[in-house]
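quick one, 289 residues, struct below
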Amino acid sequence: MIKFMLLMIFTGCALNQTREISLEDVSNKDFEKPKAERYDFRRDYFSDVDSENAQALKDESLYRVNSFDSEVKDGDVLTKIVYLCHKGEFNEAFGVIETENERYRKNPSFWNQVGTCYLLKGERRKALMFYNKALEFRPNYAPALNNIGLMYRKEGSDQKAEVAFSRAVKNANFSKTPRFNLAQLYLDYGLFNNAIKEFKVLEGSNDVDVFAGLGSAYLMAGDYERAADYFKRIDEDFYERPYIGINAALALYKTGKKYEARDILDDIDEDELGPYKSYYEQSKKKVGL
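---
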């Protein structure tokens, strides 16, 4: 099945324009495949994106950002593909993919981006095929494994997601994002000791979501002082985000700071609660609002 993937993608893309070609114009070089671009993990970064998330994007080639919010600075192929797909410009993105697929045919990062484009289009089965295509070239390629894990989570197959994330964190390169996602999975199931173990590995990154994860895990564990300490490391502007602010408020309440807890809950925009609405209402009652 893998062998005919390119036919599935690119059939029907022939140009409408034609031109007369003399045999004298044709040489053996016209039939040679372009030299395959060797994979180099040191270049597998989105380092040329002008974005408010730029620091996160520099940290790993995959991160917890859902879209690019600005322009790509240069013509890097891999960055351009995923940028266009995040913008919804799929025709242009697949045009780049068609042009570059021979050059990057052995590059797992390229096939990972193709998979992400299909995922963004809502074509999950094709996305999974191309993530697996990336794994053909590097069986423990963390970005592809991480994306497969995220797909399984969205499908409710959390046991499969755990397997994918666990495989990914064994990779020396790009292991931070799947480790975060693995820790978050444990947290969602109330396995706070497992979550703490994974989040602690990431603590040195000074990441807001890592601190929030550790704070939430210690809150579940009943270690309220430590929970409050982690939430205090987060800039108060982030408390407006429900998934951070609600647990920060509860941690402060449990450590005797009920007025600070109430202020945090008051500042959360109730129109942005989404799935946290019920939890928010319960927390307000808890702190006496």
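The chain has 15 helices and no strands.
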